[in-house]
Amino acid sequence: MKTLRGQELKEAKEYIKKAAEVSGQTICSVRRIGAVLVDKKGKIIGKGFNGPMGHKCNPCLLKLLAKGVKTELCFAMHAEERAVVDAIEKGHDTSGTTLYTAYVKNNKPTSTEDSFCAHCSRILLESDVKRVVLPEKGGLSSYDINEFYDLSFDKFIEKNYIM
């Protein structure tokens, strides 16, 4: 993990701001998350927000999620996976890209332990995304994809009392 500083931080803040804007497209009443996938040249090639496919949500499931039931049970697409799908559908190569993701609360990006998702980390690793940038308590942090993958599975195991 690397805490971003200087010019890197300045650029990352702009992409996180864009991810937060994209999160406004969700119809989810429990979480608001946005993501942008950026190529090596700094161009946004994919955008995603969390929400059900077909934009039809199961309100019963939302109530369970609000009570802390595992988010893996939700049928919604995650913002991160939607950003990758968006890029691929537009014919972009996702190799070497950076994913910027933002959990939005009270209309501003904030940190959350739920940023580490085992499901998304597998998709990002398979899509050859290079790194993930997200807000944390100390500022914006950048994770190498392998580190993000490992942390996501560690947190999943910890959260779900496996092993």
The total strand number stands at 7
What is the overall pLDDT average? 87
Helix content, binned percent: 25-40%
Judging from the principal axes of the Cα atoms, what is the shape? globular
Order of helices and strands: EHEEHHEEHEEH
Radius of gyration: 15 Å
Task: Please indicate the percent range of residues in DSSP E strands (runs of 2 or more).
Answer: 15-25%
Structure classification: alpha+beta
Number of helices: 5
Oligomer: single chain
Biggest sheet record: 7 strands, mixed
N-end to C-end Cα span: 26 Å
Residue runs with pLDDT of under 50 for 5 or more positions: none
Explain what the structure shows:
With 163 residues, the chain is an alpha+beta fold. Helix content is 37%, strand content 23%. The protein has five helices and seven strands. Strands 1, 2, 3, 4, 5, 6 and 7 form a seven-stranded mixed beta sheet that branches. A hairpin with a 2-residue loop joins strand 6 (131-136) and strand 7.
Brief description of this entry?
The protein has 163 residues and is an alpha+beta fold. The chain has helices at residues 6-23, 59-66, 79-89, 118-126, 145-159; strands at 2-3, 33-38, 44-49, 98-105, 108-110, 131-136, 139-144.
